Amino acid sequence: MAQAGLSPHLVLIGLPGSGKTTVGRHIAEYFERPFTDFDEVIEHRFRKSVSRIFTENGEPAFRAAETALSKELATKPGHVLSPGGGWIANREAMAHLRSRSRIIYLRVSPAGALQRLGQDIASRPLFDTGDPTETMQMLYDARRRFYEEAADLTIDTDLLGRDALLTKVVGLVSSAWDLNSDV
What we know:
By secondary structure, the protein is an alpha/beta fold. Helices cover 51% and strands 12% of the residues.
């Protein structure tokens, strides 16, 4: 259960390649908040890559770690959070943070996400098999409703370069929310 009087988290959601980690690091620095990349924390705790966690422990173990991290963060003051792309469909994990978070959906087309990921796609466990284009489209189709329902704010990122995206997110967050207020 979240503690009263804590400043809200800012959670960035979207497909792999939407810019969650890049934007998250910048936003955290700009607003002087801690930044938490879920994949990095989970990799550290398991002492292996997300890809190896999926292969050796299975996706349920990864989702359980995601849920545990969400529960832990629910008791902390406001962070900028970058959960994995599938976190949004993990209802238990999301329930821990939703009531005290502002959620931004970084909307990107499947083609745009693939372009941004480039060679990094090989390190993504959900893309280990099959055609990356079909897999990304499948993820988009499966998660789109969750992203749209959860989002307090949606930013289309396809036509924005890195600097324009960062500037837009900072501006919208600054004008939309007082991140120092209690939730």
